[in-house]
Amino acid sequence: MRVDVASEAGVSRTPNEDWAFAADRFMVVLDGATARTGTGCSHGVAWYAASLGSTVAGLAADRRVRLDDALADGIRATADRHRGCDLTHPGTPSAGVAVVRLDDDVLEYLVLGDVTVAIDTGDGVRVVIDDRVDRTATAERVEADRYPFGSAEKQAALLRMKHAELAARNRPGGYWVAAADPAAAAYAVTGSLSLDSVRRFALLTDGAARLVTPFGLLDWPAVLDVLDSHGPAELIRRVRAAEATDPSCLRWPRNKHGDDATVVYVR
What we know:
Elements: E1 3-8, E2 18-22, E3 26-32, H1 45-60, H2 67-81, E4 95-102, E5 106-112, E6 115-120, E7 125-128, H3 138-144, H4 152-168, E8 189-194, E9 200-205, H5 220-230, H6 232-244, E10 261-266
Antiparallel strand pairs: 1-10, 2-3, 3-4, 4-5, 5-8, 6-7, 6-9, 9-10
Helix pairs in contact: 1-2, 3-4, 5-6
């Protein structure tokens, strides 16, 4: 088994709000949600992602613990670390989470929020993604996509979009991410498949998955081929090269010119 990891901040000199851990038998990747509003918290998103990620990794190491239980307990423990903050604030720090764990003959996965797990079984690539957030704030999202990156109109539209997203966060009919309420873990996408059928797999934050969505420059088998031949750092380099050709973010509408990008690849 070979495990490769790469992570890069979307903008230099700013904290990387992704977090990753990779061991021989389990991998954890978090994508901290950008805070465009107040959070009611003295801790940043990077702190939240690292605190939650390290806790979930420790819990998931015990194969007797279900992955959704590990996430729920991790959310609870992280909330306990900053009870002095206003954890009821609608913008309290949050993150998308993906976990893969390998047992003797089974691959288990959990995805909550916009982190992707792509698994090559030999018969095709199974893509596990939780895109519920993309189905919220649709009118505000379309409006934000109209404006070039960096414009005052874009910034105002993104703020309206963020408020609409937060109104739908962690509630029925909306979307679910790890924040302060451990109940969100029950809404994670989970599953398993025979390890004998798995050739390779990857966990990617949405900033690293841009060559597929929204750029449409590669499909998932091609992404895995790049990772297999050149490694995660090369995939991220290609994402950055594509971003550089669209500085206005109008060819490929998106909320940030460059997003934090993290990949864990296992072969």
